[in-house]
What we know:
Shape: globular
Structural class: alpha+beta
Order of helices and strands: HEHEEEEEHHEEEEHEEE
Number of strands: 13
Helix content: 25-40%
Low-confidence stretches: 1-26
Largest sheet: 11 strands, mixed
Number of helices: 5
Mean pLDDT: 87
Distance between the termini: 43 Å
Radius of gyration: 20 Å
Amino acid sequence: MRRFCFAAIAISVALAALVLGSSAESVSIRGDYVEVRTASVFAGGCHFNGEVTTTGRDALMAWSVTSGKWNGVDLAGVRAIAVVTSDVNLSDSDAARRSEVIVDREASHAQAVAMVDALKTKYASSLGNVTAVLSAPISFDHTGKSYAVNSGRLASINVDAMPNDLCCKMPNLVWYSPLVSLSNRKVGYTTSAIYGGDNLATPWQRSGENSAFYGSFAF
């Protein structure tokens, strides 16, 4: 009986170690993230209802990896942008989506391939059908509570924190969820956001609205 108990304990410890090890390995990529939607994510009810059926069909998503590997490739320092579009508001998770991914030109070929594979694997439902992968210079500056992402004529994002963290004090006015699971998720004020490409959708730009999310991502 005692031998059986010792064996059961040993198995339990081994299983616990396996679970903990798997959990640790499952989170291998970390970094900063910001997204901008073509609709206010924090607004009064009337404003939200006026936009939900007419806009909010496009988004810019941007990642800056601070640490981690994917398929054995170190992605620290790699930056990427995804441009997402749909025929309806992106809050409809069942609607078909199309996207293109831009990877910073400074990334090596191996890093670019690994980054795109990671995004497709982890964010398949958010990205939908990835129709193109582009290489272009990307700058990603996160200073304090401000974000500035730029990829030349293709896309740019400038987001600041909302005054007094209103999104946290009035969560009932946050109508959407970010397209990426985030730690310390906050709503941001979009100073400007521009999609200037012509491969995926009609070029668009937004400014002066609470249409952004930002925080830390990990997978």
